[in-house]
Amino acid sequence: MYPFDYTRVSDTEEALAAGRRGGRYIAGGTTLVDLMRETVERPQTVVDISGLPLDEVTATERGGLRIGALVTMTEAAAHPKVRTLFPVVSQALELSASAQLRNMATIGGNIMQRTRCTYFRDVTAACNKRDPGSGCAAREGYNRPHAILGTSEACVATHPSDVAVAFAALEAQVHVLGADGQRQIPFADFLLRPGSTPNREQALRNGELITAVEIPALPRPLASGYLKVRDRQSYEFALTSAAVALHVRGGVIRDAKVAAGGVGTVPWKLPAVEQHLVGERPSASLWAAAAAKAADGARPLRHNRFKTDLLKRTVERQLRIVGGTK
Question: Which residues form the FAD-binding PCMH-type domain (predicted)?
């Protein structure tokens, strides 16, 4: 680990000032500290924001939820309003990491975490995300855990967050605070596909601070859930996952929100699946036909071709779980 300065701030203005000077925000620290140990991240200054008043879950006027950036994963998963209104979020959080990490890690930090690509974390390997222009060792190396959607010649790394998949499905907004005041970023625009600049991962401006993630009000009744497929049952990242939310009224699907994880360079919204569902009556054949569209545009690599079919089966299974019918 390289030497660094540490400062603890007590209000958002102090935090923003430190951020504009190049400081890196830290709260739970579960990802940044790991990367600093591996010398992947080398911040000159670490800014501890854990004391800021951003740790509440509140209902919005229209029936959505606003989750403060410093709410821990454990607190968010257990919150009665989260569990009642959006169980897909609770389930995604509870299937993440370990209990010890969930007790420390925050919502803001979770969506900001960097890829688990082994080449990114190996400072001797070529990685455009870590060292722009150096190449992508994963493309010709061992790429079983890597992405099949949203990839580019420069990068094929997946985004590791489970709850980000749920936020993407629910079309959440990320609230940020910066020198120019507050703004909201649609979750679909917050995490960036690699393109030719994989080192730029989020749509944050210099020194901006995440204050909350807001889930909009969605039609009721709303059934939702998260399914994660992985090599082992606990403390493992997804090979594929599916976040599904369905609004069914009068026996017809009126609205559908579907996203996938473990297969994309960012949490992958599935509009073709959603469009196939809306206006139809739940049935086993409908789930299968909709899920068949889940891997549209996939570009598998040598070791992860299995993800194409696994993604379709994962989406179909979760549609069946959330929507009913055998």
Answer: 1-220
